[in-house]
Every structure is written in structure tokens, then in C-alpha cells.
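Bug report (template v2)

What were you trying to do?
Predict the complex of my protein with iron/sulfur cluster.

What happened?
Run completed; filing so the output is reviewed.

Input:
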Amino acid sequence: MKDEPCLQLSEIFYSIQGESSFAGYPCLFFRLSGCNLRCSYCDAKYTYEEPATPTPLSTLLTEATRYPNALIEITGGEPLLQEEVYPLMDALLATGRTVLLETNGSLSIARVPQAVVKIIDLKCPDSGMAEKMDLANLDLLAPHDEIKFVVSSRADYDWARTMMEEHRLAEKAKVILSPVIGRLAPALLAQWLMADALPARLQLQLHTLLWPGMKRGV
Ligand code: SF4
């Protein structure tokens, strides 16, 4: 008998989706362990600094059945580092679930099933990771996908605006701008967004407003 796929997990939690155009909906999160980037503002270092929990695919599918009406988000770390994420996505889609995949923009999304909603970070310069982006992904977007810029400064904002224009991102997917809390005042980002009337939406992390100070499980 073929061995069952096993994923390296950082945490499973049920919460309110705090980001993306799905913000506000109940969501079951599978946070996979490991990341190939080291963003300057990373708030999920535990995903690559702490040991992972090996978890069989069937356990995750059973967990999903406990929340039959919730969204499911696969996140990290960087979930596409694990080959087993592909059978997980296929199995969840086969049961009719809405599946979101949050990925850091450095790995190809070519093999991700079309039906999965891909939320792709485009790392801005202040993250220190802008050079690592796989820009070929920008030609693989579906209209339901989302491009997220996490913005630390005016320089980041200008970079995001240029990327939007050069790659006509708003015509290909939804575009989100999110401020790095503690580095950029959300109202300032809102002001820039309004001044340019960019076809993008401002995102504030709903879970940090609901549960301030909680770093995990939200
Ligand atoms: S991609 Fe995400 S988990 Fe990885 S270093 Fe950047 S912020 Fe942290």
C-alpha cells in the first residue's frame, strides 16, 4: 500500500479570516511549517524556528469535516515548499470546499489547481525579499486570485504602484495593500491610496483588531 502523504504542520486553528477579500468569514487554517524567505517584518518566525508536527493528510481532511461551512486556508511559512500540499488541495477541492492558498510569491503557482484562490504576496523592497519574487506568476493569475503588497514605507508604496501599472495587475486579479503595523500608519496608506485612486483595496488585519496581542491561533 502506498504511504499516505504527511504534511509538516506548524499549527491548525479555526478563526475569522483576517485578510484578503474573504476577511470576516469563519475559516479553518492549516499553517504549514518552513519558509524559504526571511522578511524583515516576519511575525511568523515560529513556522521555521520551531519543530514541525508531521500530520497525515487524512487527519487534516477529518479536521476539515468538523467545520463543514468554513473556508479553508492553507498558509505558512511557505506552503508550496511541501510537495504534499498538492494532494491536500486536490482532496479538499474534491469535497467541494473553498480553498485559499497564501503563498509568499517566491515559488511558482503553475501546479496549483485553478479552483484554489491564490493569495500571493509581492514582497516590497523594505521586506528585503523583493528580488526573490517569481514574476512569472503574474501571468498565471485567475480573476479570483489576489495580489497582496505589504507596505512599510512610501518607497514600498511607490514600488507597489509601479508594479501594478507595469504588470496591469488590477486587470488580472484583485489587488490588496496592507500596512506593516508599527512601521506605517494605516491612515497614511489610505491617504496615498485615495490620492492616486489606485484600483486596490486597503486591508487591515481583522484578527489583530479582534484579538490584539495574540500572535498565534488567530
Ligand atoms: S514569507 Fe511569511 S513566514 Fe516567510 S519570512 Fe516572510 S513573513 Fe515570515
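What did the reviewer find?
The first helix runs from residue 46 to 49. The longest strand covers residues 6-16.
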